[in-house]
Structure formats: C-alpha cells, structure tokens
C-alpha cells in the first residue's frame, strides 16, 4: 500500500533533471504530491517530467538557472499558477566542478569560477527561498530542505574549495532560516549526503569510489532514492517538530 503522506502538497525540486533531484521528485509524486521540477538542463527536466506524467503523476516543469533570481521568480510564478502555492521547497541543484579532470587547487582557481559555484550552490538556494517564503509566511506553513554535503564539515580531497565552502554555508543558511521562519510555521533542514551514485560521480574513478565504500560502515555508496526518502520524511507530518537540523545520509561515512 502506497504512503500518500504528501497528498495535497505542492513541492518544488531544483536540479530535478537527474541524479538525486530526479529521485526526490519521483518519490514526492509517489507519495501523492503535485511536483514542480526545475533544472537548467531543459532536455533532462522535460524528460523527467514526461516520465512522471506517463506514470499518472501531476507535474509541471521549468527550465531555469537557480543562480539567476529573475529566472527563479518567473519559474515559480508560472509553476504556482499551474499547481497552486508551493509549500515545500527542495533546494537540491548543485555542481562540483573539475578542472582538467581534478578539483582545482585554491591557488589556481579563477575568481569567476568561485563566483559561479557560489552562485549556483549557495545563492541559488537563497533565490528560491526569497521567492517562495512570502507566500509561506502568509499561509503560516512551509517546509524547506537545503542540500549540503559531508563536504560542508569534513575535508574531502575529491572536491574543490568553493564546493566545501558553499556546502558549509548552506548549514548556516539553514539554521538561520529555521530560527527566522519557525514562528511562521515553516521548518528548514539540511541534508548532508555522503557519496551517492549519480551522474556527479562520473568524474571519479571506480577505484576511488571503492575506497570510500570500504571505509563506510555500511560498506557501499548510497543511492539517490535513499536521499529522497530522508527529504520526504523531513518535510512530512512525521517531522513537524524538526527544524534547523543537518541530517547525514552517508552510511556512517565520515561521522562527525
Ligand atoms: N552525488 C553525491 O555524491 C553528492 C554528495 C553530497 C551532496 N551532493 C549534492 O546533492 C545535490 C545533487 O547532486 P547530484 O549528485 O544529483 O548531481 P547531478 O549532477 O547528478 O545532478 C544535479 C542536477 O542539478 C542541475 N543543475 C546544476 N546546476 C544548476 C543550476 N544552476 N540551475 C538549475 N539546475 C542546475 C543539473 O542539470 C542536474 O540535473 C547537489 O547539491 C550536490 O552537491 C551530491
Ligand atoms: C562526485 C564527487 C565529486 C563528489 C561530489 C560531492 C561529494 C560530497 O560529499 O558532497 C562527494 O562525496 C563526492 O561524491
């Protein structure tokens, strides 16, 4: 029997064209929500939306770069006009760029590349929160999940400094949101995935991933669905009194 605990909810997921975001969008659909998919890769987000519609789910999609405030505002207005007011926001879109096949050391990182990644991984989450919280505050209800990473609080040589810095900032951002928005019935939590099998991993050697699996207590990498399950839990009625928390989804890797 399906768990329809998100029936009646309208959920917006960024980075929903693939990887963890696509799994999150699908699980919300399966749990009864209407889902708005946002991604800057138009072909991917269109395809994910088509797959979900074919399965009978209520979805709309928008092609937007989360780093662009105006594009976020336009996309949210269009999506809310079709689905109704958005009450659940999953800020999942993020990038972990490589430079010549490896993370750029800080002394070689171009300032524009720093700005670009901060724009997507951090400002992108602010943009969506800024656009959507006025109606959440007005309706005295909202659920927000921001995607951090174990890299936000542990040194991971596989990523570069902009990535770690933005994922750490997401934790402070989330806790501040929890404090400020709590009195209006809005919760904000963060997820800190460990290594999850998604397209983001395609630049990492199989050997490196095996080494992570070997040092993970559960002895494997995670799946996008395992991250999605925690996002759905944290925004369901089962987590009504949970806010300002950072939840690792990492199989025990890098327990801190
Ligand atoms: N995969 C991992 O091991 C891992 C671990 C920890 C945290 N994370 C985080 O989880 C999130 C999802 O990662 P993933 O592994 O699914 O990545 P992914 O690369 O597989 O998917 C990311 C999606 O975000 C979209 N996207 C990227 N930049 C965007 C932008 N500016 N505007 C709109 N959409 C954009 C991409 O088109 C893509 O569909 C990211 O925030 C990532 O940092 C991933
Ligand atoms: C895919 C690789 C570069 C990677 C990205 C993000 C991570 C994170 O924890 O945020 C790493 O675990 C790693 O999988």
Automatic annotation (TrEMBL):
Residue stretches making up the Ketoreductase domain: 9-194
Highest taxon, organism lineage: Bacteria
Keyword tags: Oxidoreductase
Family matches, as InterPro entries: KR_dom, NAD(P)-bd_dom_sf, Sc_DH/Rdtase_CS, SDR_fam
SMART domains from the UniProt entry: PKS_KR
PROSITE patterns xref list: ADH_SHORT
Coiled-coil region list: none
Family: Belongs to the short-chain dehydrogenases/reductases (SDR) family.
NCBIfam families, per database record: PRK12826.1-2
PANTHER family referenced in this protein's UniProt entry, alphabetically: 3-OXOACYL-[ACYL-CARRIER-PROTEIN] REDUCTASE (PTHR42760:SF133), SHORT-CHAIN DEHYDROGENASES/REDUCTASES FAMILY MEMBER (PTHR42760)
Protein name: 3-oxoacyl-[acyl-carrier-protein] reductase
Source species of the chain: Pseudomonas versuta
């Amino acid at each position: 029997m399906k768990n329809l605990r998100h029936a009646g909810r309208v959920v917006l997921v960024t980075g929903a064209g693939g990887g963890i975001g696509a799994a999150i969008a699908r699980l919300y659909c399966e749990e009864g929500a209407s889902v708005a998919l946002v991604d800057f890769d138009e072909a991917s987000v269109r395809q994910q939306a088509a797959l979900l519609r074919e399965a009978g789910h209520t979805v709309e999609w928008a092609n937007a770069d989360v780093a662009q405030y105006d594009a976020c505002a336009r996309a949210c207005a269009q999506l809310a006009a079709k689905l109704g007011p958005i009450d659940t926001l999953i800020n999942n879109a993020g990038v972990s760029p490589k430079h010549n096949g490896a993370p750029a050391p800080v002394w070689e990182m171009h300032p524009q590349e720093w700005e670009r990644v901060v724009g997507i991984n951090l400002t992108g989450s602010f943009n969506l929160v800024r656009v959507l919280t006025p109606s959440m505050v007005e309706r005295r209800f909202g659920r927000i999940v921001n995607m951090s990473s174990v890299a936000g609080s542990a040194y991971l040589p596989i990523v570069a400094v902009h990535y770690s810095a933005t994922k750490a900032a997401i934790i402070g951002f989330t806790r501040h949101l929890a404090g400020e928005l709590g009195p209006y019935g809005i919760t904000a939590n963060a997820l800190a995935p460990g290594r999850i099998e998604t397209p983001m991993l395609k630049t990492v050697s199989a050997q490196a991933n095996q080494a992570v699996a070997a040092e993970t207590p559960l002895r494997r990498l995670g799946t996008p669905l395992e991250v999605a399950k925690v996002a759905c839990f944290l925004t369901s009625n089962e987590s009504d009194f949970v806010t300002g928390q950072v939840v690792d989804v990492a199989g025990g890797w890098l327990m801190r």
